């Protein structure tokens, strides 16, 4: 249904329609990049206990995003005037699901490698900065969804004859 590069392109499709795309870029890319550079400069090494917390938290978000995709499939069946908004929100949700699975996979790998190997400090710093970037990118990207979902549900409840 979706290719990985298609998901990446569809995540950026709302960027083309925004009136202030620099805010979108700053929120989703610049702030996470600054946080990961700060983690590198501060010699931050993520602890395996933090990874144990990241894995279920992101897994929970992936489950909730899967529910939002299913919810959006319900609204896309109707003749909704905001079909473009529904498609964009579904694409953002699918991008976040794939990103969340990547974060969980990297966290599981980092958890098991941190239990075995503690000698590679440079690799641990780079890994920690990568996890900081991915987590902050993920959490800032997830902020794009609530307002979109609210507008979709509100518009469909106004046009639906079932909701009086």
From TrEMBL:
Record's keyword terms, sorted: Membrane, Transmembrane, Transmembrane helix
Regions crossing the membrane: 26-46, 52-73, 94-114, 126-151
Lineage: superkingdom: Archaea
Official protein name in the record: Uncharacterized protein
Organism (species): Halodesulfurarchaeum formicicum
